[in-house]
């Protein structure tokens, strides 16, 4: 069969034809790009050269302007000093110390201080009323400044050409002058328009003022006149213009030859010939006056600098240009051409490489698209898991609830076994759903840790109690030990910490058939200091296994060989850092090191690298042999990371495994009230000061027993053999230090295999005959057993040598109960029965749109004597809970049609707030609302959405607490019972305290 090119073949042909076109197009584009880059480089370099030229010109111009300004200011200061001289020695002396001859001689001899001035003169202020006397005194007439042809008097004139100054209010005739300008004596400076304005500005401003440029006849240069007012006294800077005019005595003026001034300046500079300088008077911006410099053609570059000669009214600028045109930027031209050649050559070389890279980039884009799709699929998976788990938990609530209600009926043994099996299977399914939910929340970043105070030792007791039945069934030791250096109260997420321990212990229980599981908790710094000083673990008798005699027994919890636990945390950063125990005790951060040691089957070496991967187990047969999903360790690792810690393990097949992790918490500053109540419980306080002896041949196990007894306040001594125990028991009491032994705790396996329950003879005699001191009762005997058959248990009690048997694993509550019963310290508490009566006759409203869930909740609450009423919507709940009503509490589903639980709760709280305000203000009588002064019914959320419906959301809308579906009877009872006082006030039906409140009691 011959096959044509087909659609794909045509596409390839088209791609081949268009490929050449695109290559040609790419070549043109690359050449155009190279040319553009070269042009840009040329323009950039040209711009840089131009900028450097501008900067050079600006620097040179600014330097000249600064020097000119400085020299002018020096001359101005000397003129000002001369004005002060006239004020002091002419007007300040009587008779005057200055006349024309003195003035001329002084100014001639001090001319070197004013090299830029062509002459100075002093004009006296003369009023019209003083003119006649003034002219008689001086023997000449005050002359007008202008001649008959209206030209101003400059350097040379004929006196007969000048006319007397016309009549005016004030005159300013020159009385003193330098010899170079002696021709202006007797001329009235006020008769010239510009000089008059200059004089008026000078005396009102008390500063030097300048005239506009005028031509000096002798030099044919443009010059300016600087004028200072002379006052009869020193005036403050705050003097008004009127005060200054009143104090004016005369005016001192000096003429400046601007071209000569600039020439002297430029002669001081080596680069005089490089630039052309012009000085302009720009007071009139539209018609600037060129005071210095030639009129040159524009050479391209130009810069101007402002000149400040001390007169704010006059504006002056210095304009600078290069004398010659700027040459072509040859460096930019040659560099850009060279770059163009290089770019074209390099572009030609890389053109082929770019074509080859294009295919790789195309493949990369496809991979990125696949990555985006994979990430979207991962998000969809998390959303799917959350949604499906929510939908599964709701019917599972009905299944488990109905099974519990079924088990409460009269069933035969077979039916009861079937119901229990179904319930356990349902609980296993819920546990799996919870693990999958945790994994989904962690992957989506929605898992947040709480920060609440908790008792670490109580948390671990609770974890141990979860596995007590399984450990007893398997006959393995399960024990917990916490270092006494670990604070009693920590702040953190106790639930997630408990989840990590539960996962690790659950794994160990699953894979351990003989031996032990040992959980220990130390401070990280405690382990580090001990390891740094001794090269070993903390110096507790709980750690390193050692051989004992010829037998393969070890100093471990069960005497079984274990792996080297040091290797499980040898790479932890906290243990390899610079922290120490002292710094931790002084700070609020508590770093814990937790180890879970077991003697199970161990983990194969080829599977150890993937042990923390989700849904991964050691091999395919593991899940069939031991069960499980392989997700617990993955979740534990993520939770440890959220707690700022690390997790690791060491394992040897056939010996066992040790998992270790660190976690950071905050030191609890105070003990919460509920924990204080627990510490003051008689069960934990009645044993303080008691004396006990632990008889056990294994140091590790004896220390664990001692740890739990010391938590009850019991003084404990450890005996590794019977003789040592007898020496403790028979020791005479001493009132100061030694107390009689109240109890002896003997481990079942203390004397090795074969001994069974046959106590050694000395202990039997001691039990039968008592101590040598007959006034003191013999101690109570307690047998510690990990597992016992019913015949063994009956035999131990019937012999009479043992007062009671304490079953392991050890917990404080269990030990306290056994000791209390054996020591006759009181009957068993009836607190449980009293608490169960809290709900008797309480009216509780259950709101859920699912009929099965309503039936389950109602059945569970009715079991405790509550009167339950059910509704299927939020609107119905709103009408039922409108004050006044008779309900003591309400369970509210959060997801319901029309009005969900959050909206219903918000509206209920709003109505209660309005009613409370009306009662408080006296608008209505409290009797109208059945005598209740403050309405707040406890509302507890029921939700299967453990991701979205968080505790914070419930509190924010006004709910008091919440329970997660599927719930058990005890869970419902515990959640609602906290709002009822065991001994209520007879005047009030109930007294509730809201979780969102700060302490006010709310009555419904």
From TrEMBL:
Transmembrane spans: 328-350
Domain Response regulatory: 691-823, 843-980
Reactions the enzyme catalyzes: ATP + protein L-histidine = ADP + protein N-phospho-L-histidine
Segments forming domain Histidine kinase: 387-667
Location(s), subcellular: Endomembrane system
Keyword Phosphoprotein attached: yes
Domain of life: Eukaryota
Molecular function terms, GO-annotated: identical protein binding; phosphorelay sensor kinase activity; protein histidine kinase binding
GO cellular component labels: endomembrane system; nucleus
PTM-bearing positions, type 4-aspartylphosphate: 747, 893
Domain CHASE residues, every copy: 94-319
The protein's name: histidine kinase
Organism this protein belongs to: Amborella trichopoda
Record lineage: Eukaryota, Viridiplantae, Streptophyta, Embryophyta, Tracheophyta
């Amino acid at each position: 069969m011959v096959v044509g090119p087909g659609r794909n073949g045509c596409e390839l042909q088209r791609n081949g034809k268009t490929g050449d076109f695109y290559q040609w197009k790419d070549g043109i584009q690359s050449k155009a790009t190279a040319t553009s880059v070269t042009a840009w480089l040329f323009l950039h370099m040209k711009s840089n050269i131009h900028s450097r030229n501008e900067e050079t010109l600006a620097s040179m111009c600014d330097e000249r302007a600064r020097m000119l300004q400085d020299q002018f200011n020096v001359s101005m200061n000397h003129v000002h000093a001369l004005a002060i001289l006239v004020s002091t020695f002419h007007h300040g002396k009587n008779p005057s110390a200055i006349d024309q001859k003195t003035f001329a001689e002084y100014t001639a001899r001090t001319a070197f201080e004013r090299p830029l001035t062509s002459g100075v003169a002093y004009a006296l202020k003369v009023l019209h009323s003083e003119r006649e006397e003034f002219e008689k005194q001086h023997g000449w007439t005050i002359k007008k400044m202008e001649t008959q042809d209206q030209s101003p008097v400059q350097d040379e004139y004929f006196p007969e050409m000048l006319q007397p100054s016309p009549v005016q209010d004030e005159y300013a005739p020159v009385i003193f002058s330098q010899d170079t300008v002696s021709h202006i004596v007797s001329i009235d400076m006020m008769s010239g328009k510009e000089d008059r304005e200059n004089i008026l500005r000078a005396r009102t401003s008390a500063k030097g003022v300048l005239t506009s440029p005028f031509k000096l006849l002798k030099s044919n240069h443009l010059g300016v006149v600087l004028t200072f007012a002379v006052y009869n006294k020193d005036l403050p800077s705050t003097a008004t213009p009127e005060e200054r005019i009143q104090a004016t005595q005369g005016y001192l003026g000096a003429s400046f030859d601007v071209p000569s001034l600039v020439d002297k300046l430029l002669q001081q500079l080596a680069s005089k010939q490089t630039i052309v300088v012009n000085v302009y008077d720009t007071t009139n911006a539209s018609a600037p006056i060129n005071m210095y410099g030639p009129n040159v053609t524009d050479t391209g570059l130009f810069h101007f600098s402002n000149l400040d000669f001390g007169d704010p009214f006059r504006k002056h600028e210095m304009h600078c240009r290069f004398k010659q045109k700027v040459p072509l930027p040859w460096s930019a031209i040659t560099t850009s051409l060279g770059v163009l050649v290089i770019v074209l050559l390099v572009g030609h070389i890389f053109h082929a490489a770019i074509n080859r890279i294009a295919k790789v980039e195309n493949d990369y884009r496809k991979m990125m698209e696949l990555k985006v799709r994979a990430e979207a699929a991962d998000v969809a998976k998390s959303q799917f898991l959350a949604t499906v788990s929510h939908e599964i938990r709701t019917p599972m609530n009905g299944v488990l609830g109905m099974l519990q209600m079924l088990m409460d009926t009269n069933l035969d043994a077979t039916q009861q076994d079937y119901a229990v099996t179904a319930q356990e299977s349902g609980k296993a399914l819920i546990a799996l759903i919870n693990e999958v939910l945790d994994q989904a929340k962690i992957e989506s970043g929605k898992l947040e840790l709480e920060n609440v105070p908790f008792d670490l030792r109580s948390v671990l007791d609770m974890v141990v109690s979860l596995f007590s039945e399984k450990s007893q069934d398997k006959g393995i030791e399960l024990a917990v030990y916490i270092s006494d250096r670990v604070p009693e109260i920590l702040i953190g997420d106790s639930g997630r910490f408990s989840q990590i321990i539960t996962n690790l212990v659950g794994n160990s229980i699953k894979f351990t058939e003989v031996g032990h599981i040992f959980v220990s908790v130390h401070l990280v710094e405690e382990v580090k200091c001990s390891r740094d000083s001794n090269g070993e673990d903390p110096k507790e008798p709980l750690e390193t296994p050692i051989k004992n005699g010829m037998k393969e027994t070890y100093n471990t919890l069960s005497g079984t060989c274990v792996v080297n636990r040091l290797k499980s945390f040898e790479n932890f950063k906290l243990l390899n850092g610079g922290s120490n125990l002292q710094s931790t005790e002084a700070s609020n951060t508590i770093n814990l090191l937790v180890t879970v040691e077991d003697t199970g089957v161990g983990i194969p070496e080829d599977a150890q690298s993937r042990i923390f991967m989700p849904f991964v187990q050691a091999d395919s047969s593991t899940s069939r042999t031991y069960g499980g999903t392989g997700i617990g360790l993955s979740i534990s690792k993520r939770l440890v990371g959220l707690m700022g810690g690390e997790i690791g393990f060491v394992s040897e097949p056939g010996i066992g495994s040790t998992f270790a992790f660190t976690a950071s918490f905050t030191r609890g500053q105070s003990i919460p009230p509920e924990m204080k109540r627990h510490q003051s419980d008689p069960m934990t306080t009645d044993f303080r000061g008691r004396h006990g002896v632990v008889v056990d041949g294994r140091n590790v196990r004896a220390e664990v027993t001692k740890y739990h007894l010391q938590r009850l306040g019991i003084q404990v001594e450890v005996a590794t053999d019977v003789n040592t125990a007898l020496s403790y028991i028979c020791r005479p009491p001493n009132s100061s230090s030694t107390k009689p032994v109240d109890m002896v705790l003997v481990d079942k396996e203390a004397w090795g295999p074969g001994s069974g329950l046959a106590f050694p003879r000395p202990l039997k005699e001691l039990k039968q005959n008592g101590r040598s001191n007959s006034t003191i009762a013999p101690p109570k005997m307690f047998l510690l057993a990990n597992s016992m058959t019913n015949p063994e248990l009956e035999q131990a009690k019937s012999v009479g040598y043992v007062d009671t048997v304490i079953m392991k694993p050890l917990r404080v509550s269990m030990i306290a109960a056994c000791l209390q019963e054996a020591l006759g310290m009181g009957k068993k508490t009836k607190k449980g029965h009293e608490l169960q009566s809290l709900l008797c006759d309480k009216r509780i409203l259950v709101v859920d749109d699912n009929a099965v869930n309503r039936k389950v909740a109602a059945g569970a609450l009715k079991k405790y004597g509550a009167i339950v009423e059910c509704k299927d919507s939020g609107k119905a709940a709103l009408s039922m809970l409108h004050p006044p009503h008779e309900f003591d509490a309400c369970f509210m589903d959060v997801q319901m049609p029309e009005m969900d639980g959050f909206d219903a709760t918000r509206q209920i709280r709003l109505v209660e707030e309005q009613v409370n305000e009306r009662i408080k203000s006296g608008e209505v009588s409290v009797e109208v609302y059945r005598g209740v002064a403050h309405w707040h019914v406890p509302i507890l959320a029921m939700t299967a959405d453990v991701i979205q419906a968080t505790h914070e959301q419930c509190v924010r809308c006004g709910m008091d607490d919440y329970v997660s579906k599927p719930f058990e009877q005890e869970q419902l009872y515990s959640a609602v019972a906290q709002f009822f006082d065991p001994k209520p006030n007879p005047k009030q039906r109930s007294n509730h305290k809201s979780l969102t409140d700060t302490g006010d009691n709310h009555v419904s």
